[in-house]
Amino acid sequence: MLQLSTPSLRDSILRHLTYSFGKDPEHAILEDWRMALSYAVRDRIVDAWFKATHQTYETGAKRVYYLSMEFLIGRLLEDGIVNLELVEEAKSALAEFSKDYNDVLADEPDAALGNGGLGRLAACFLESLSTIGCPAHGYGIRYEHGLFRQSFVGGRQVEQPELWLGQRHAWEFERPEVRYRIGFGGHVTNHGETVRWHPAEEVEAEAFDTPVVGWKGRWANTLRLWSGRAIHPFDLAAFNHGDYAAAAAPEALARTISRVLYPDDTTEQGKELRLKQEYFLTGAALRDILRRFNNQFGDLRKLPSKVAIQLNDTHPAIAGPELIRILHDERGIPFDESMDIARNTLSYTNHTLLPEALESWGEALFGRLLPRHIQIIDQIDNEHANRNPSRTQSMRADHQVKMGQLSFVMAHKVNGVSALHTELMKTTVFEELHNLHPDRIVNQTNGVTPRRWLLACNPRLAGLITESIGEVWVDDLEQLEKLEPYIEDAGWLDRYGKVKRDNKVELSNWMGQAHGFHVDPDMIFDVQIKRLHEYKRQHLNILETIAHWLEIRDNPDADWTPRLKLFAGKAAPGYFFAKDIIRLINDAAAVINADPLTNKYLKIAFLPNYNVTLAERLVPAADLSEQISTAGKEASGTGNMKFALNGAPTVGTLDGANVEIRDHVGAENFFLFGMTAEEVMERRMVESHAQKAIAADPRLARALEVIREGRFSPAEPERYHNITGNLEGADYFLVCSDFSDYWRAQREVDAAFKDQQGWARMAAFNTARSGWFSSDRTIRGYMKDIWDAKSLLD
Ligand code: F55
Prior knowledge:
Layout: H1 9-20, H2 30-59, E1 63-67, E2 71-74, H3 77-83, H4 87-96, H5 101-106, E3 111-113, H6 117-132, E4 136-141, E5 149-153, E6 156-160, E7 173-184, E8 187-191, E9 194-198, E10 201-213, E11 220-229, H7 236-240, H8 244-256, H9 272-296, H10 303-306, E12 307-312, H11 319-330, H12 335-345, E13 346-349, E14 360-362, H13 363-369, H14 371-387, E15 400-402, H15 403-409, E16 413-416, H16 419-427, H17 431-436, E17 441-443, H18 450-456, H19 459-469, H20 484-487, H21 490-515, E18 524-529, H22 538-554, E19 563-568, H23 576-593, E20 602-607, H24 612-618, E21 624-627, H25 639-645, E22 650-652, H26 658-665, E23 671-672, H27 677-683, H28 689-696, H29 698-708, H30 721-728, H31 735-754, H32 756-768, H33 775-787
Parallel strand pairs: 1-4, 1-12, 4-11, 12-13, 13-16, 16-17, 18-19, 18-21, 19-20, 21-22, 22-23
Antiparallel strand pairs: 2-3, 5-6, 7-10, 8-9, 10-11, 14-15
Helix pairs in contact: 1-2, 3-18, 6-33, 11-12, 11-14, 13-14, 21-32, 22-23, 22-29, 22-31, 28-29, 28-31
Bound molecules: ligand F55.
């Protein structure tokens, strides 16, 4: 490595502006400044990156590989600046050239290479792995189009393609020399013991590397994303015959594979291209992992002691059969031994128990695309059944390939993402497998990185904390408990309250400028931001809002606690019910915000195009965190943790990690309501449960009635009959049954918020007691209980 003295950030920016981008300060546009700053920061990241790579190699340490179809990383420049502690230097360097730091940061495209929680978790994990100094790679797909851009037209969601690569960014290094051939289709031949797959079609996976730097630049790992390339990019024969479209066809075909992220977060569509993407990612990652392992160690029987591969949900589950195919078919290791090596190397995280989200592929499609893998899966299934004679289920029932079952059998550890979710795994989807392998399921409750979700996004609060207890909390978040004594100090608590109030003013100003939406920062900022889904129950929230509005209208002079209901979130393009909920919220907002009788007490905003960047604005300014899923349905949630950490108490059900958040922050600092997961299962058996709940609560009945009669859609009164009909009928997610208790909890919120000091105490206890929800703690749990991996910084 070159040992040069580090130039100042200012000089480095100017050097890159001049020599990397060919601009002088007079002619540089904002993007040039952003790129020059990014390169200046990147240079320093690269130093840490090389150091980490060399240390990993020299120590022969075990490496962790995180395979995920999604990495919802968002913008990266601020992450780098914050982790290298360059904030002040960057601000003053830009100021010298009359550039505003925040304008420059805001110019970066937001890389939305994921749908929601699962993808964001992968991004937080990468940052924690680097902060901890655990040698690791993330493997994913370099989608040209991330998650669609959302706008509203007449209150309805409209999707536009997202082209994050349309602008320059500084973070990836193309590795044209790192390419692997990935095959599809074809046939299988048998020569005695030797089985060979002969794919009919092949594409090339090309690597793009992004360094991920940890806190204080002590370590940096790699996110390696694969891009599809044609092996023979151009069909010259076709071109010479004058068929220009056919000439370009191989290139187009190969590129489609990494063209677009599937926008569904809960419904499995079973599409051929999706299965191709899954094998493309997994096949390329495994070749890369084995190449690195071979160069360093050689003996494949030692694989599990040097390599841990984590499957982020079942999406890369083909890793099991693919690893066996390589070990057995290509390297001649006996099948049962190959299976054991693979299992000891692999582990699997489950993120959902919703039946419609569990991946299964039709055997015809699967066998056509991956003819050798389907044979191996049958052999795994047989081998597993032979070793466990009491097994009654199969991963190959109903002409399907069941990826959850396959993943479980091929993993030495299977983990849930919260305590409740992990227990439910044992009694529902994986009951039989759990009974056969009682030590396999373990819990690792999710976490979030405090660097992005407190230090970077909430500088006011981070500043107050550091001033109070020092900066130890940044990579040891449980140190936040040292704030507890300060909470008893009225002066300190005032400052804590003022931080929140300043954050709310900042958000109000932004909403005014960006969306022409003006709100009083003294209202309760009540926030529900997440993907749209019936189980997350945004419709419960809007029903309560409508009922509250009607109540205020009945008595407009009473002493109401002013409230802003903030929503944001995307619906899967084909999920029409969820899209109707968005439209209902927007329609209700238009009517209610315009009501002069009520609008100083109640306002509604649905901000478009929710993404990581918007979350970073909203989380620090929230007073109240809405976590209101039907108990048993939200595996964990991670937004819930971000809000608690930033001082927004939760109104929520006993679902996912809410249970553990309440245990940590204290029941008195959490607004609990609703049925438990057990009660939910019982209530579903009760005949006409929704009708009974409606009959018992006149507020609910009236809210449903005004929607049904078209108060928010006068031009089309029946517009929301699908929603009201669903709620009055099957109401699978028990919106009606939980309504009354939700109403009660919300009125407790109103009363509590009137006592501003009492509220600040509650908020501060949420911050002080949320340290356990750091993804550093989660990653250390994986390292110890699942990967048997060590930090090279300890
Ligand atoms: C994406 C694609 C498919 Cl095919 C299926 C699911 C998804 C997805 O995005 N799932 C997801 O985000 N699950 C969430 O994972 C979080 C992290 O563990 C949990 O906190 C959250 O409860 C869960 O819904």
